C-alpha cells in the first residue's frame, strides 16, 4: 500500500498546518532506553495468558497440500532552511495569531477564497510547501518540512481540544483548511473530515504527549528520535539458550519443491470505468464519479491505467484465469492483504466486507482444494489504518470486532477452527502446514504508525509479539521450520520503530527456525534483509516483499511465484528461487489483449549461487559498484514499468538502504557504510573533471 495521502489522521493534521510548533518548548533531552527485561518467575503469568491465546498445537492436524518508483526527493535543504528562517521572522506574531484563530476572522482580509482564515495562518501556509508535504506523506519519504508541518498541526489540534472545541467545530475548521488551500476536492475534504475526525479527537483527548513526541512517533527518524517512556518497551524471551546457527549448504542436486503463489494488494475497484478521467485531482481516478475524459490522453484504459487508478475486475479475472492455465501445479497460496480500492474518503464497513466476501468467493472458485494462507492489510479497516486494540476502546462504534469476526468466518474456509481465538482477538494465527513446517500470519497493523490508536499505548498490542515468541519457541522445541506472513514490511517507514526493533530481535533469536518471511504493502518488487543483533555484519534472514496486482501507480500489475524446499529429510523449507510475472499494461490497453509474462527468475537474473541471506547480503553490497546490476534490479523493482522515473545517487542510496533495513527508522546504523561507498563512487576526481570538460569542449568545435 504505497498510497499514503489521506490514509491517516496525519492528513487532518496537514489541514491545520500552522507555525505553532516552531515556538513551542524544545525537544526533550533523549534518555537512554531502559534495560531489556529478563525472564523471571513473574513472567510465567504472562506466558500462561499467551498459552490461552495460542492454538491447540498438540491436537491441530497438519494442513495437507498437493505434491505436485521510487519517489525521488528533491534537494530541498536550502528551501527548508529558508522556510525556517522566515518562520523566525514571524515569531513576534505568535500571540496575535492565536487571538485571531480563537476569536473572529480578520474582517480586513477581503480575499474571497480565504476570507475566514486568520491572516497569519494564511501567510505561514504560503511559506510551507504544501505540495511537498503531501507528496512526502504519500510516499513515506519524509523531510524536515513534513516534520514541521506535523508538529504545527498536532499542536494546533491539541490546542483546540484543550480549549473545549467540539468535534463539529474541528470538522468545520478542518474542512475549511482543506478546501481553502486546495489540498483536495471539496467532496474528498468532506469525506475525510467526517470519517476520521471522531477517532482523531478521541485519541488526542487521551494522550499526555506533545507535538514533538507525536510526530517522532508518527514520522520517525526524520522528526528526531524523541525519548518517550510510553512508547519504549521490550518483549520477554524465555530462558532458553539460542541454538548455535548451522550454515545452510548450497544444494547441488535437485530436491522436491513446493510451488507457491503470492498475491498481494489487489485493490479491486468496483467503480472503475474505461474512458473516464484518469488524470483527476483526487487520490483515486478512473471512476464513474470522475466523469468522462476531456481528451484521449486522459482516458482510463480498458485494463487499468498507470496513473492513480486501481484494478478493474476484468484485469483480476484475467490474471486468475492466466494463473490457473499457466501454473497448474501450485501447492498453496499466500495472500498478503489490501483488498479495497484507495477511495478511503467514502468507504463504508459494509462495502469493504462485501469486497472481502467477493474476493474469497473468487479465490475458492478459481483454486478449489488449494490451501490459501491470508494476512490482513491496512486498507481493510474503515477508516483505513484504524485497528484499535480492544483494551484502548470503550465505545462500540470504534471497535474492530466487525472486521475480525468476518475474517474469522471467511479465512476459515482454508484454516482450522483452532485459529479462531487469535483471529477474533487480533487477526493473527499459526497453522501446522505439514509435519515440521508451520506458517504464522501476523497482523502488521499493530506496527503501523498510521494507526493512531497506538498513540495511546503502543506496548505490544493484544500481546501479538509475545504470542509470536511463544509459537516460535514451541516450533524450535518441535524441530519445525516457520514461514512468516504479514502485510506491512517490518523495515518499512510505516512500521513503528519500537515494534520493528522488537520484531528484529525476535527474528535474530529464532533465525534457525524462521526460514522465510513474506510481505506486501509497498506495491514494488523488493526485499529486506535482517542481521544478527550481536553482529550486524552477518545476515540471518530475508523478508520477500511481493509486487502488487494493482498498477497504482506507475506500475504494471504483477504477482510472484516461489519455489520452496519441499518434503524430504532435513528439508530447510527455504526459498530456492522465485519469479515475478507481470502484464504490460501499455500493450494490453493498446491492443486490447493482455499478456502475462515472466519478467525474471531471481537466481538466473542476478547470477546468485542460492537465495540464502548471506547470498543476498553479497548481492546488496555488489549493487553499490555494479551500476548495470543495479539498473536491472531497479527495472524489476518497478515491474518494468515504462513510466518509472530515473534514479539518481540519492535515490540509489535510499533503494539499497531499504534492502538492508529490516529494522525501520534505523538507517544511521544499518546504512552508513553503504551510503559512504555510494557517495565516494559519485565524486569526480580533478583529472576526470578536466578530461570531461576538455572532451565536451572538443565536441562543440
Structure description:
The protein is α/β, with parallel strands linked by helices. Among the domains are: 113-223, no CATH class; 260-272 and 310-613, Transcription Regulator spoIIAA. Helices cover 39% and strands 11% of the residues. The protein has 24 helices and 12 strands. A 6-stranded mixed sheet has the order 3-2-1-10-11-12. Strands 4-5-6-7-9-8 form a 6-stranded mixed sheet. Helix 8 crosses helix 9. The protein is globular and about 70 Å long. The protein starts with 8 loop residues before the first helix and ends with a helix.
Approximate shape: globular
User: In percent terms, what proportion of residues is strand?
Assistant: 5-15%
Report, as a whole number of angstroms, the end-to-end distance: 52 Å
CATH architecture of the domain at 260-272 and 310-613: 2-Layer Sandwich
- CATH class of the domain at 260-272 and 310-613, anyone? Alpha Beta
- The helix count comes to 24
Helix vs. strand class: alpha/beta
Strand order of the largest sheet: 3-2-1-10-11-12
| Biggest sheet character | 6 strands, mixed
Which consecutive residue ranges, at least 5 long each, have pLDDT under 50? 1-34, 67-76, 86-127, 684-701
Give the helix proportion (percent range).
25-40%
CATH-derived topology of the domain at 260-272 and 310-613: Transcription Regulator spoIIAA
Identify the quaternary structure here. single chain
Look at the structure and give the mean pLDDT: 83
Rg: 26 Å
CATH superfamily of the domain at 260-272 and 310-613: GpdQ, beta-strand dimerisation domain
Tally of DSSP β-strands: 12
